[in-house]
Design a protein that fits this description.
alpha/beta, globular
Amino acid sequence: MRITDTHIHLNFAGIDEIRQNLLESCIRRGISSFIIPDVAVNNINQNISYPGCRFFFAAGVHPLYIANAPKLTMETVERCNYSAIGEIGMDLRKNIPHLPAPNLQMEVFTEQLDIAAEMSLPLIIHCVRAHEQLLRLIKNNGFSCGGVVHGFTGSLETARQWIKSGFKLGIGPFIVNPRMTDRQRRMLGSVGIENILLETDAPNNYIDQNFAIGVPVSLHNTLETVASIYGIDVEKAADIIESNVHSLFFT
C-alpha cells in the first residue's frame, strides 16, 4: 500500500534534526511520496532526498508571508521543476496580527494564479473564510488546471463548488478528531472519494518530540477514518486516493 502526503513542509528548518528519522518512519509505513509546498519563494529547499522516497515541490507565497517574501515570478517557476503553484490563497481571519489587507491578498493571489495558468500547473490553496472570493477569482481567470484546497473544512455546498471548478479537497488529521461534527463527516461522505487527497500539514500540527512518529501514524489514521466514512477497506481507499494524486499532479 502506497500513500502520498500531499501537504507537508519538510523544508522547514525547524525539523532539520529529525527529518531523517521522520522519513525512516514513513517508509516503514508505506509513505514514500511527499508534496512540499513553499510559503515564501526563497524558503523552498529542493535538495531534500532520501532512499526510496520521491519529493515534489510547489512554489508560492502564502498569504501570511506576503509582506516579507519576494514575489513569485515566471522566471522562478521556469528555472525549477515545480509540480504545482502553492501554497497560495487568502486568509481573512480577524485575530491574526499583521495579516495583509484583503485587497493585497487578492492582488498577490491573482498574480500567482496567472503564473499557474501560463505554466499549466495546479494550485495548492490556503483558504480561510475566503471561499467566495477565491472561487470568483478562479472563475474570472478561466483557470482550468485544478488543484487542491488544503485542509478543507467547509460546507458541502462549498465543497461542491470547488469540485465543480476542478479542485480536490485536502483532508488532514482533523477528520480523526472525535470533536469533528457529524455535518463535516457527512460533507466528506457526500462528495465522493475520487475528490479527496490526504495530507498532514506537518509540522504545523505536531509537537516536536512526537513529530517523527506522529506524521505516519496520523496519515494512516486519517486514511482509516476516510475509508470508514466511505464504507470501503483501507487498501482500496488508498488506491483510489493515490490515483487522485497522480491525476492532479503527475499527468
